[in-house]
């Protein structure tokens, strides 16, 4: 894709595999290091490697990239997959705190990022089960 071409989707707008990987890695680095995210970090396994990979594949798919997540896991059913975890306003807010910083640091400003953030906030709120 030339630099003057309009991206076909958010996946392309964010730099494809490299851009999404950078976003997800920064998100989990923040979750792992930020005391403000201790509650949400405690819901994850000690090693975040599997979580990183799964979120990378999901966000890639969600943004219009490769269908790897669907091929491996089937329909996302995100709310059902998160039901075993107690997710209330505090957990949602901690998750969004880390994601907001990761988005701001790694994704290019503009309409694609704004639309992505709006969708992320809606998804995070939908995950609440407490």
TrEMBL record:
CDD domains, alphabetized: TrHb2_PhHbO-like_O
Residue ranges that the Swiss-Prot or TrEMBL entry lists as coiled coil: none
The keyword Transmembrane helix appears for this protein: no
Record's keyword terms, sorted: Heme, Iron, Metal-binding, Transport
PANTHER family reported in the protein's UniProt record: TWO-ON-TWO HEMOGLOBIN-3
Family statement drawn from the similarity comment of this UniProt entry: Belongs to the truncated hemoglobin family. Group II subfamily.
Protein name, entry field: Group II truncated hemoglobin
Organism: Viridibacterium curvum
């Amino acid at each position: 894709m030339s630099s003057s071409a309009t991206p076909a989707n958010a996946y392309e707008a964010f730099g494809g595999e490299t851009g999404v990987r950078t976003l997800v890695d920064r998100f989990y680095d923040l979750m792992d290091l930020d005391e403000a995210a201790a509650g949400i970090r405690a819901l994850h396994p000690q090693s975040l490697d599997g979580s990183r990979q799964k979120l990378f594949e999901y966000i890639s798919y969600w943004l219009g990239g490769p269908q790897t997540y669907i091929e491996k896991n089937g329909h996302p059913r995100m709310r059902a997959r998160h039901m075993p975890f107690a997710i209330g306003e505090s957990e949602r807010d901690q998750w969004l705190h880390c994601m907001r910083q990761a988005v701001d640091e790694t994704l290019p400003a503009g309409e694609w990022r704004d639309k992505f953030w709006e969708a992320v906030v809606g998804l995070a709120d939908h995950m609440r089960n407490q």
